[in-house]
Structures are given as structure tokens and as C-alpha cells.
Request: fold
Amino acid sequence: MRKFIVDTDTASDDAAALMIAAFTPEIDLLGVTVVAGNVGVRQAADNALMTLEACGCGAPVYVGAARPLIKERKETISVHGKDGMGDRGIIHPTRKQEDKRAVEFILETVAKNPDEVELVVLGPATNIALAIMEDREVMKRVKHIWTMGTPGFGSGNATPVAEFNVFIDAEAYGVMLDLGVPTTVIGFDMCAGEIGLDEAELLALSKGNEAGKFLEQATKVLLQFNFDTRGVHMVDLPDAVALAAAVWDDYVQSTSKCHCHVCTENNETYGQVIFYQQGRTYESMPKIDNYNAEVVTAVSERTFTKRFMSMLLK
Ligand code: BDR
Ligand code: CA
Reply:
């Protein structure tokens, strides 16, 4: 069994990702850690607990950072609703979060399972950076980091050049990428466009299992946002796409080894990530050889929708 910790600022697409983790038999979901991002950290904990409940999964939930490492917490437009879950009044978990803090849980778990734990990071990287700052040696024994972050090779959604998770805490993202464990970046370019759920699929979910029905409700505000801003009747699920990349090995079609540089200067480039790709010649630069991530450059959209839907219709 693969040992996973999912770190999330739980909104609707994070919930979809947690569903894949909960329903994949090869994954031992050791715990879910939450961080402020899409919503405040307490709301994120309740959203995660409620999502796991909808999946019949008893994985523990640990509360982490309420604000980024250095910057103030930004007020952003919530594309997922005020509660991050469609504002449908569906968040009333019966379980509670654990007393232990997220960073303590991450460090303890990695120390107990050296070279075995995979971290899936679906929100700002604050908890991961705090754990690295507290005990880098322990964090060096993480087996793999999978992160939904950066625009990839497309454009940003928080600013023209920055993707939301990195934009909220770019300093933390830099600390995480500098850790030096195998890291896979799934950028927003892999999650936008056709990949996601359309009107017919959402209707099917409303008649699916408990998790499916829950997700259909949780994505209502996102659906409206996409319609208002892009005229499309569909929901994109970046975090689910990222988690799928971590678990379905026939789903990722290509990656590019890169040196990723996170811009933290306090100007309009804040949160931008520059990718120096292996095998490319940059005429004004010496050869780069300090690669810190594999960046996903193609996934199978059909595989995503087919597998994801079948999990939620069972
Ligand atoms: C990321 O930002 C959030 O809105 C989503 O949950 C996802 O993690 C996409 O840019
Ligand atoms: Ca997220």
C-alpha cells in the first residue's frame, strides 16, 4: 500500500481529490492536513471532515497554518463559494479534527515511515514549508511530493503570471521546491480546458453515490463562476487532476524535467514560477543542471473523466 498525506485548503476541487484518495484501494490515507487558502483553516477542516464522511473514510484531519509564512492572508474571490463548498449548507461533520497540529503530524509520520510517505499538496505550501523549517532532515525522508501549483506552461489564474496556490504563499512554495526530494508539479494548464465535469456528468453525479451527490452540490458556485466568466457549463477540478496524476500511472502522458524558480519579489511577478527545461538551450544563460521537479506536460483527459465518474457512480 502507498502511504499518503494529503495537504489541502479544502474547497470543491480539493474535495474531489480527497474522494480519489479515499476510493483508491492501493492508497493508505494516513491523514489529511489543512491550511488556509481557498477558505480559512477551520472551514477547511470541516470541509475535509465532511468530504471524508461522504466517502465513508475515517482518515484523521489535522489543522495547520491559518496564514502564509510571511505575507498577510489575502482576501481573494472565492470561486468555490464562501464556505468553499458551494454555499449549500452541506457542511455539518459528525467527527472533529485531531488535537495534534498538522506540522507535528507530518513530521512524526515521516519519521516513523522514512522514504515511504508521499505528500500531495493541494493548497498553499505553508504547512510543508513549516515542517521543513522545523526539521529538514526528517522532511528529506519524504518519498515524493505531488503538488497542484503554478500555471505550468499556461497563464495564471490568480494574476496573469501566478496560479492561486503559489500566489497565496510563494515563499512557502520556494521552500518546498528546494527540499530536494522527488517532486512532481501539476500546473493549472493541465487542469483547465476540457478536463473536468460537464453538465451531463454533473447531472449523473446528482444520482450517484453519497460522495457524487455531495460533490455535485459542492461545485454549484464554481459552475456559476465558470458560466459567468467563460460562458461554459462545466467545472474544472485541478486538485483532482493532480491527485489522479499521483495515483494512476497510465494517466500522465509526458513530463519535463525543470529547474523551477519561484518569484517572491514584491511586485507583479509575485508567485510566478519560471521553468528552465532540461534539454533546452537558453541563449543568454549558462547550462542549468539543478533540476528540482518534473513538470507534467500532458495527461489523458478521457482517462480522468472515465475513472473519476466511475468512482462516484458506484
Ligand atoms: C488551485 O486553487 C484553488 O482554487 C484550487 O483548490 C486549486 O488548488 C487552482 O489554482
Ligand atoms: Ca486547493
